[in-house]
Write a structure and sequence with these properties.
globular, 2 domains, 4 strands, homodimer, Glutaredoxin, about 50% helix, 4-stranded mixed beta sheet, Glutathione S-transferase Yfyf (Class Pi), Chain A, domain 2
Amino acid sequence: MLQMRLRGGSLKFYDCKTAPSPRRVRIFIAEKNIDCETVQVDLGNGEQFSDWYKAINPDCVVPALELDDGSCLSEVLAICDYLESRFPEPALFGVSPKERAQILMWNVKVEQQGLASVADAFRNSARGLANRATTGPVSYAQIPELAERGRSRVEQFFRRLDEQLANNEFIAGDRYSIADISALVTVDFANRLKLSLSSEAMNAKRWYEVVSGRPSAAA
Amino acid sequence: MLQMRLRGGSLKFYDCKTAPSPRRVRIFIAEKNIDCETVQVDLGNGEQFSDWYKAINPDCVVPALELDDGSCLSEVLAICDYLESRFPEPALFGVSPKERAQILMWNVKVEQQGLASVADAFRNSARGLANRATTGPVSYAQIPELAERGRSRVEQFFRRLDEQLANNEFIAGDRYSIADISALVTVDFANRLKLSLSSEAMNAKRWYEVVSGRPSAAA
């Protein structure tokens, strides 16, 4: 059967192929099979600080989404929520109020316990990010102790993930959701720091095989 | 006119009167005039680490919400989203998909740039929180440099807030929303660290007068 690509109208997605946050949106778009124009922002050369991109997102981070009326959204959650309203199928935020809340809950836990910890570890230690310990327009020096704490917290998060997946097929229950996308991106981002799911984390490993095997994971 | 209190059924809200995160939910509940049972969790005495509370939220943080079926939600965003579905009026997440996304976007910006910065500054410097630099079941030592960075980032966030409020009545546009609740709680939390909106931040100060003057702000 031929899969129809959904028309994204004049949506324009501001991406950077090498960065983890926009990858969350890329996977979301792939799952929904949305066809929309994509613009690469060259973070390596500081294009996020250019005047043209500041007009898209004054906070100088990707991803961003330009809507049909020319207004712009930033922040992964906001962009995905908008795309969910406009392209409801397949549902990636659940369908009932309770399921939706559970998915949002797990998405927050993954972001705060997982993704933020990897980011702390990465941005406070990478050689190329001296004085770029946080994203955004202001420069902050790296804090080596925070990189260390980030690494510990990633390991703690991986244990938490494994516990949750002992009794759930996907992170927030029976359904693949945005929380799985966030967690997949977290695990792959952590790999850059040579942090990976331990061989004892059988539940998380089983889950990782499944979610990383979906075609969308190539995004 | 007598205001009717909405029936919260057997919802049970786990709160701590002195903590900023559950205050976000308290204000949300007050705006919607929901009548629900509230349980105080004594963070000062470590009740969040008790077995009974771990069964509510294994991450050992407040707030949490127990639903009619006995299942529990944690994380402010998830709890508020659930309450919004169940008690839609007044809308605190907007009404159209675009407005909702803009509110979610600003709520994320307030959390990441504002609230997380105040928390970094507070938890990494408060005497009573030695070895409690993060919330949750694992203990981490304070990082004084992170407290300093947090203070700088709070000031940067206050400037961002003022800029945004130069052209908007409320944080995400024309409508009071969860983003205003998050920002109000952030400003009041920062006050504990003697960080306040500068006298030059006229737009933010105008906004603060309005939102802190609403009856819900007493929650």
